[in-house]
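lol ok so funny story. i was supposed to be doing the assay writeup but got distracted and ended up predicting the structure for this chain instead. priorities right. anyway since i did it might as well share w the group, maybe its usefull for someone
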Amino acid sequence: MAKGNENLHSALKAKNDEFYTQLSDIEKELRHYKEHFQGKTVLCNCDDPRVSNFFHYFSYNFEKLGLKKLITICYKNQEIDLFSKHTSERAIYLEYNGCKEGENVPTLEEIGIKHLQGDGDFRSKECIDLLQETDIVVTNPPFSLFREYVAQLIEYQKKFLIIGNQNAISYKEIFYLFMDNKIWLGYNNNAKTFHKPDGTTQTLGNTGWFTNLETKKRHENIILYKTYNETDYPKYDNFEAIEVSKVSDIPYDYKDTMGVPITFLDKYNPDQFEILGITKTWFGGASKIYPNQTQVSKDGSKSTVSKLNDGATIKMSSPPRDSTYYIVDNEIFIQLYARILIKRKDI
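and the output, tada:
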């Protein structure tokens, strides 16, 4: 997983984020949404049909899903034998309306190939015009443009099922959508192996599905069995909430604000919980600013840290085992990864 995350960060930094999703991963996720596609027009607007398994999945399952139309936009390509070379400044888009011979295998004659005036960028007017024709967008957009891509889908009120880096959860623009129940996680959210344009494969950690299509999973309650006590659930030093280090440890009898790991969103049921914010500077609020402090690493080495003022911080009576901790004015603190702030709705 560490290597996968390293690959993902490197790709984002270099804007080298063209990854082709494996057909097995698409089939594994899409099987949960079949009822949403009957009579619908599907758009795959970040896909090279020659190599896109999204195009492969929807064209071969067109009749089975009961689709009305499939539109696929190919960026900067205009000829069928140039699909994967990206040598043209013009793009094409394909319209597929199903097999006419009943063999469920699309032929070249049945795939309507049309030219675009521009390069096929999803933000261009002609691509937005195609977006407005469609009901559901399913694709793997560029990770480096994820904010813009999701913002466009929300602006045009489109249903979608897309792959993204799960670090996007903590982006302010994306997290507000989670809070407002305009986006949520899909069924399968773990590391995946992708194909690259050069024929190689690459495993990316921390990727998953984002959607606004309703699922049964989204309304399943988290089974709670722990009882609240002050020892197991300490309060943050810089915010009025208790720390819950594991989703499975959420107490069933606590009605006030709790901080839980980001993995909570994979099990989040909006009927059971309300999302209040995230602890990246308490979602815009002021967090406590500490004086210069000494950081003590796992091996016992010490270094000076100028300030500790972002996220959730707990004051400890003794150093936590196998953790980096901080000494401020002879008191011990541990700074946690980002926490989602939640509150029970059904208590």
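The chain has two domains: 2-218, 220-347. The longest helix spans residues 2-13.
back to the writeup now i swear
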